Amino acid sequence: MPTRRTTLALMAATVLSPIAFARAAQAQDAELVQEMALGAEDAPVTVIEYASFTCPHCARFHETVFPPLKENYIDTGKVRFISREVYFDRFGLWAGMMARCGGGDRYFGIVDMLYKRQASWSRAGDPASVVGEMRKIGLTAGLTNEDLDACFQDQAKAEALVAEYQKNASADNVEATPTLIINGTKHSNMGYGALAAIIDQELGS
Predict the structure, then answer these.
(1) CA–CA separation, 64 vs 205, rounded Å?
(2) CA-to-CA distance for 36 and 66, rounded, in angstroms?
(3) pLDDT tens digit sequence for 172-184
């Protein structure tokens, strides 16, 4: 079994390298990437959030906007919320890989911890230290070191995630984070009041 030292070396050397990006862009049989979503599938409003785990504005959105959005619109069946990850850097990709390590059931809980502790792990310094801080979050979420090693080493998954990100970001012309797509219309970052007003307009209320 690879050691965690081997895992860190592999990540630092290969994941999100120019070669990996090129392979991902050209992939024909990329692994299917699960769409991470909350809320009723038949909700009248769909909100797609494009966000980077290393983006401070995204962390702020999840601290101040997402909780009331979830309580008032997602949990009440009015909004289907879809999370799409943006990878501006390798640390953001690694965070996405770890968040998906626990499957759909644990994804949003891990995402919440990643944003709340963003300053700690994203600024930890060298790649090994960053991964070490991420690992603490994964362990807190109930993952094992073996789970995390397997997730961090999954090069095929990394390439599939990058390919999916490139496809979606290109289709929706995403240039900054967070970007919101509300029933097909693109919007830049906003506070909860502005977002609620747009959703209410879509709901006809």
Answers:
(1) 23
(2) 15
(3) 999 999 999 999 9
